[in-house]
Amino acid sequence: MQYGLRYAIAKFAHQVPNMSIVTTSKDDARCHHDQQISCANCRLATICLPIALESTDIERLDDIIQRGRPLHKGEHVFRNGDPFSAVYAVRSGTLKAYSLTDDGREQVTGFYFPGEIFGMDGIGNNQHVSSAKALETSAICEIPFERLGDLSTRIPSLQRHFFQLMSQEITQDQQLITQLSKNSAEQRIAALLLSISARNTRRQLSATRFRLPMSRTDIGNYLGLTVETVSRVFSRFQKLGMLGVDGKEITINDPAQLRKISTGQDTTG
Amino acid sequence: MQYGLRYAIAKFAHQVPNMSIVTTSKDDARCHHDQQISCANCRLATICLPIALESTDIERLDDIIQRGRPLHKGEHVFRNGDPFSAVYAVRSGTLKAYSLTDDGREQVTGFYFPGEIFGMDGIGNNQHVSSAKALETSAICEIPFERLGDLSTRIPSLQRHFFQLMSQEITQDQQLITQLSKNSAEQRIAALLLSISARNTRRQLSATRFRLPMSRTDIGNYLGLTVETVSRVFSRFQKLGMLGVDGKEITINDPAQLRKISTGQDTTG
DNA sequence: CGGCCGGCTTGACCCACGTCAATACGCGGC
DNA sequence: GCCGCGTATTGACGTGGGTCAAGCCGGCCG
Fold it and tell me: Is the CB of B245 under 7 A from strand C?
């Protein structure tokens, strides 16, 4: 009940991080107030906080960010209807955001990787209109919004940064809208794989080999497709040689071809 | 070239207005700096600016908002790629936002009615990632973002208001995503009609009789459907008696039934 | 080690919606 | 009033991906 929790193992972090950092371990969980982990030395900060802040400003930011223990797979950060009090940054692991339709079905609205920020949907009416849960063991930073607002009035670049974050979320949503309304199953899946690949690159991970943290069902749900279709497209891509698929382990053999497909410039019948 | 224009006939305005106000007339167009139209006396302000501001604060806001002449049907406010410098509020008329896919097709991402704010997509990377054009003769208010940011640091409630606006845009986009990925043509169209009806209500216009400002093509594009499907659904709804359709003039005869359809609770075969 | 359960794959079938095409409507211009 | 063109309607037909129904694989627990 209540919120999910406020499990922030470390400090700030945001839109696509730098490095996967140590995976959430017990050691991290022990971190406390005086720990070495802070925005100032977080390796995700270059992505999460790409703004020039005075070190005193970073300290102020550090002060408001909450820590906590790691989330286990399936645990919620917040649920639809919870009062809104904070936005969150992924430090490690992966989360998904989703909402429920009136008839109770789930709609996945996004996947969040280390360095990315989520939970901004709740600002509008002071309560979350979606839920967020961990797809695997994850660690997050909680950024209380009220205090962030206060801080923003004193640090204009921080305010601008948050406007940018929200604007990016809007842009992403609109890209998904275009996908859903115009593109075929193959195009959507190619685009998602490329998106994950790009986000890995920014975290300095491999762009061509990675493990999908989400299930086929989640992928289908996110892209407006059924599990069966997702599975079939994966098989087709593999058969064509552009993709290696071994369960959740993905190898992109032919990024160029994948890009062609995603943009509809594919010539291969 | 350049921006579209910066045609703001009046002052502020935002998320769904209060009243349709005088339609854009030559008289409005003559309004100048010292004119009676300001945020303080704009009838849309209760919707556009639902925050308590000191009158001195309203004056400051007034000072930064640009005026201009009305836009004609088809004119752009901004285009994809234009540098971002302002957000806009609809004062009268209707506009659509859209982007182009890589292969040049249009994707309508939203319709904007009097009192609603648009153009926030550009904040993220300082340039617009969509275009906005007038569907009919319209008047808008331009709110230079840089100065708005400065002002927000001095008026915290204004900052919060803009965070809320952007959050609402995110929520709306996510609702559309759900529509596109889960709902049938009939459900999507029923939902759009109800949305327009609700927005009319907030402007104190009729909830059951109105003129659609956009073409069937735009509706289809927005909802991820073809013109033909839109037309067929309209005909079907009319045949079933729940809707009166006369070109762009719409009469909702059975809102309850429409609501049932939009939420998938329809029983009628 | 074996059995169970949840997630994934594959096949056969079907239907909502897209495509193509013909026709009708409505509005502005002359 | 008539012409012309863009927008809307309607019909006939095809298909991408949904639905239903079997398997299958792999991890976990006893």
Answer: no
